[in-house]
Amino acid sequence: MSVRRDPKTGSWYFRTRVTSPDGKRDRIYGTPGVSGLYHDLPNTRIGAAEAEKRAIAKAMTGQQVRPAVFKEVPTIRAYSETFLDVASVADKPSSRKDKRQRLNNDILPEVGDLRLDELRQEHVHRIVADMLDRECSRKQVNNTTGVLSALVGYAVSNKVIADPDLTYAIKTQRTAMEFVLPADVDRLVAAAPDGRYRAAVLLAADAGLRIGEIRALPWLEVNELAREISIAWSYDRSMSLTETKGWERRTVPVSERLWAAMKALERKGDRVFSRLNGDPIGYDAVRDVVTAMYERSGVKQPRQPWHALRHTFGTELANRGADIETIRELMGHKSIETTMRYLHTTRDRKRAAIDRLGSSWPVDGKQQRN
User: Fold this and answer.
1) Sheet order of strands, 222-223 included
2) Which segments of the chain belong to CATH 1.10.443.10?
3) Strand 222-223 with 241-243, pairing
4) How far is residue 187's CA from residue 166's CA, in Å, rounded to a whole number?
5) Is the domain 76-157 a CATH 1.10.150 member?
6) What are 164-200's pLDDT values in tens digits?
């Protein structure tokens, strides 16, 4: 490789051989960004490559190459604004907010002042190490380095830099999926403060809606004739109304008890689930209420109390023999891989049941005693 970086000083330079038209073979070398022929170029990989081009052209023609206007590679901090304003323009407001927070909290303090072409694997590892030292989960780490990967990828696609070929993700152990047992769903329904929250619990457990979709569900999407609901909208944590996570509308038939709970609601406003004055309910409010419901019911609260009810819906579909494609459509999964987790959960429960049964089988012809 003719373009190199001095391991001691960190400076970029080039060194190569060139054969002139008269057959003479010479060694040419130079360093950009210092006094001399290449003082106008930055001391970066790209700057060294540009200096080499000039040197080769001079050796071949005997004429000094007129310096071209050279555009400096931006810093990661400067390019992050382009990334957020342009590349993320189609993201949901909550996604843009999350990216900005990860950049400001974890990425820019560590590498913000580096030029994009100066980013190295060691810098990514420093971000990872710092987050793990602060006891961030490995999933949180990967979510953060994923933002850095997307930013760098956007710069590569726009030919701002060459692909640095870095690894961003670290190994993680898949978290066990938590769901609420059907009997515990009944206890939560009984502990609900009013009909709105009874319906909300069943919209999650009997229809698989995410809490943002529950908060955004309009009465216009409730088909009383077919007794089904269409899910196309969701409220994020900042109360921004967006399309659903998979960006696709889905239709779910309504169970008997969910239908009874919805019919019992007094319609106030456009939403099925709303404040008493008809206004949408914020995320913090439903989080506090569901925590109180778990406490009153005596049901152990999972890490994601609302989302665990949605997992109940998917798990029960799998337990009752629904095919994988039907589960995917009802859950609104974009990838079949996400849906497969419910089948694995069902298999694990079946295996555990067989293992328990096997503990009472005869061993060496004799019945085990408990």
Assistant:
1) 222-223, 228-231, 250-253
2) 182-342
3) unpaired
4) 50
5) yes
6) 999 999 988 777 789 999 999 999 999 999 999 999 9
